[in-house]
Amino acid sequence: MTILANILIVFFIAVGVLFIVVAAIGIFRLPDLYTRAHAASKSATLGIMCLLIGVFFHFWLIEGQFNPRILLGILFLFITGPVGGHIMSRSSYIAGVKPWAGTVRDDLQEEIDRMKKEQNIK
Fold it and tell me: Residue 67 carries which DSSP code?
């Protein structure tokens, strides 16, 4: 049982480190704020969640201590990480940060224009 627990723990920690490394590479290599924010919010959140799952399994299966606070931390990160990245990207767009020149589509511009029309009507 200990060997299987260790394999499970090492798997989740390794996957978490892999996602964090991918997030770090994305932050340095991607061309603009929006793609960097996507890499940071999605990959880093998934990486930290996998690390916390590995820590949770370590304490539960090896140490024998079930810690629901780690599970609550995982849930909190799952909810707030991507939402925070989305809000920061949207506020940057509204503030006027231009996307990369190679951006193919800008779906948010139509929504911003629609919101401005509604505000002028009222």
Answer: -
